[in-house]
Design brief:
Oligomer: single chain
Order of helices and strands: EEEEEEEEEE
Largest sheet: 4 strands, antiparallel
Structural class: mainly beta
Helix content: under 10%
Strand order of the largest sheet: 3-4-5-6
Distance between the termini: 18 Å
Number of helices: 0
Shape: globular
Radius of gyration: 14 Å
């Protein structure tokens, strides 16, 4: 993941990520990254990179996460392409499927 400043200067913000496929910036400055890795095998994940650049896993076992969104309640929404679903993930990592049977949700 590369960050580009307002002055046009680019820097590596995070590297070594397996197939990053979606980003969402939270109000607290955390960056959420969807890692597609694995597609239908359920090897996809979402990680959180704190403003201090500490990396943590938010969710694992996703089937092709492609798009992310964070609401004002700090809940994360994940579109799973291969799972044809949308999941909501709360601050403690609890996952709830809120839509299924979709035609490959994507951003």
């Amino acid at each position: 993941v590369v960050r580009i400043s307002r002055d046009g200067i680019s820097e590596t913000y995070a590297d070594g990520l397996a197939e990053p496929s979606g980003l969402a910036l939270a109000e607290d400055g955390s960056l959420y990254v969807a890692l597609h890795a694995g597609g239908t095998r359920g090897a996809g994940a979402v990680i959180r990179i704190s403003p201090e650049r500490e990396v943590g896993v938010v969710a694992q076992g996703l089937t092709g996460p492609t798009a992310l969104c964070v609401d004002l309640g700090s809940r994360l929404f994940v579109a799973n392409f291969h799972g044809r679903s949308v999941e909501r993930i709360d601050a403690i990592g609890a996952r709830v499927e809120i839509a299924s049977g979709l035609a490959g949700p994507s951003a």
